[in-house]
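Incident log, structure service

09:12 report received: a user says their structure output differs between two submissions of the same chain.
09:20 pulled the input from the user's history:
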Amino acid sequence: MQITIELPEDIVVRLESKWKDLPRAALESLALEAYRSRALTAAQLRRLLVFETQMEVDAFLKEHEVFDYSAADFELDRETLRDLRMREARP
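09:34 re-ran on a clean worker, output below:
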């Protein structure tokens, strides 16, 4: 599907002064919002933005300060750290 957006010329000039590739910036903005709102998965984000690897997706998300780190992830990490400390404390 192709989507066309009509923008006033003065806004185009202003946006292009910030983003040299305005169509790509618009696509990335749409993709980021879709990912943040869970409308897209990481795999779909990768396909949409034509990234070759998951590492590129991760770097893209990090660059835009989008982190998938839930409270459950935190608890799991805390539990792992506790286990490691207990192992180190053993003689």
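09:41 both user submissions now match this output. Likely a transient worker issue. Closing.
09:42 reviewer note: The first helix runs from residue 9 to 18. Helices lie at 9-18, 22-36, 42-49, 54-63, 71-89.
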